[in-house]
Amino acid sequence: RDFPPTDIKGKQAQTCYNCGGTYPHQGRPCPAAGKTCHNCSKTGHFYRVCKSEQKPISRKPRMPQDQYKSKANKLNALNQNRQQQPLSAEPTVQGEPEVSDSDSNEDIFAVSRAKKVKQPPMTKLKINGVKVEFLIDTGASC
């Protein structure tokens, strides 16, 4: 059986009119404080609790198939370019974000890393007269 949410003192919690979550917020500010509603553009509440007439939520349209092919071609060109370059010990990022008049966040980057791995950092210490080799743990994997 489901029980209504309760606050810290065991009282039945209410729904916040600004964020739609449980109220009180148990010592924290409301998550909607200072945020802009995507429906009415006013601050202090979220879309889901907006009292203005609800506008339909606009979803970003899918990328057209021909645009997808163009991005795939760019990625293939970057991969071919990467294969022609000499290997380096440091990871590199190649490519530039595509400039477009759309609000798409679909930029193409190629990240490459040399296949040859450096020897891990080691040191030798003498413990009770015996030389022991230790791996230095830097916290980094490359």
From TrEMBL:
Domain of life: Eukaryota
Compositional bias annotation for Polar residues: 76-87
First and last residue of the signal peptide: none
Region (Disordered): 52-105
InterPro entries, sorted: Peptidase_aspartic_dom_sf, Znf_CCHC, Znf_CCHC_sf
Gene Ontology MF term list: nucleic acid binding; zinc ion binding
Domain CCHC-type residue range list: 15-32, 36-52
Name the record gives this protein: Retrovirus-related Pol poly from transposon
Native organism: Paramuricea clavata
